[in-house]
Amino acid sequence: TMGLNKILAVSKTQDWEVVIGLETHIEVLSNSKIFSGASADYNPTVAPNTQACMVDVAMPGMLPVLNKHCVEQAIKFGLGINAEISRHSRFARKQYFYPDLPQGYQISQPANEPPVVGRGWVEILGDDGNPKKIFIERAHMEQDAAKNKHDMHPTKTFVDYNRTGVMLLEIVTFLDTKNPENNSYITSPDEAERYLRQIREIARALGVSKANMEEGSMRADVNVSVRPVGSKTFGTRTETKNMVSFKFIKTAIEYEARRQVEILENGGTVSQDTMRFNQGDGTTSVQRSKEDALDYRYFPDPDLLELEITDEEIERIRKTMPELPTATRARYINEYGLSEYDATRLTETVDISHWFD
Ligand code: ADP
Ligand code: MG
Question: Candidates 94, 138, 172: which one to mutate for ligand 1, based on the most atoms within 8 Å of Cβ?
Fold first, then answer.
């Protein structure tokens, strides 16, 4: 595609294509946190550490209690991305040590079991101008961490626990490694942006999240690999963590793709590293190599019951859902004869499509 040829212009001998996988975190709207009664209205104007309770700061003996509304939000989003809703799933502890994580583990859902939201898809405008399905592997519920503040004192870091325990939904795109002919994944920086905008649009239309990158209520980890055009296997990918701007995400993908092509064309191999993005010059650099990969020692959280969802609950939630951007777009095209482009622009935000209606 056009986008690709531009990226991979470094190549003289071989045509390359880029393969992109996104792990998108959205902060879910709810009155209280996913496992505690503290206010989940995390915003920078609230005084630090005024919305964190004993459960959030992990005082001994505190017990988490699952917030039903949070589960409903996950189901609603799952239906919005055409996904299977698991009738049965569990919560797990993902162990690591960091000052923004007072428990010493994050309550998430097991990486190797179906979470509450299973396989789904969204449709975006592909680089070739045709609608393209992007497959989603899963979306799971988890707790957000606290916020470390490094810029308040020359030698100290401050921690604000207000954000601790606000619910996140992590949405992971699917790569069909067993069937590489299946091209329902993101293959350019522009498609990555259109995918993220689509996720944002759906989350907002459903009232599931503000999904605002500037405010940090939407963040993405960006997995990038390259492979020779026509290759039947995928290349080794790198992962650039915690990206909070469409522009930087596109820059990071372009930079990573070029860097990997250069390595491969010089006879080297790409190493499966975790990268950091440097905003100043638009480059990436290694943050953690594969050898240092963390072992999270997931195990089912013994403080929480397993999550059972009935068909009736799913149907009840389905009935409350508004028309989603994909359907609105189709209505504008079919009923008003708008172009695909105009219809896409008018459904980019809920406010605009309401105004247009
Ligand atoms: P992890 O949990 O280690 O981050 P996953 O296997 O869950 O890894 O993958 C995370 C994301 O990376 C998914 O969106 C997946 O599609 C994507 N991904 C996996 N392999 C590749 C690859 N070779 N190139 C690009 N993206 C990839
Ligand atoms: Mg990851």
Answer: 172
What percent helix, strand, coil does the chain show, rounded to 5? Answer: 30, 25, 45
The per-residue pLDDT for range 295-308, each reduced to its tens digit, is 899 999 999 999 99
Instruction: Enumerate residues lining ligand 1, CB below 6 A.
Output: 19-23, 172-175, 223, 225, 234-235, 237, 239
Alpha-carbon gap, residue 338 to 333, rounded angstroms: 5
- Ligand (nearest to CA of 140): 1
Lookup: tokens for 229? 């055009």
* pLDDT higher than threshold 60 for residue 337: yes
Taking the centre of ligand 1 as the mean of its atom positions, its distance from the CA of residue 21, in whole angstroms, is 6
Write the CA distances from 59 to 6, 94, 349, integer angstroms. 54, 18, 41
Residues 34 and 68: their CA atoms lie apart, in Å, by 8
Instruction: Report the C-alpha gap between 134 and 247 in whole angstroms.
Output: 20
Separation between Cα atoms, residue 339 and residue 232, nearest integer Å = 36
Of ligand 1's atoms, which has the minimum distance to the CA of residue 177? 20
* pLDDT tens digits for range 200-224: 999 999 999 999 999 999 999 999 9
The pTM for the full model equals 0.93
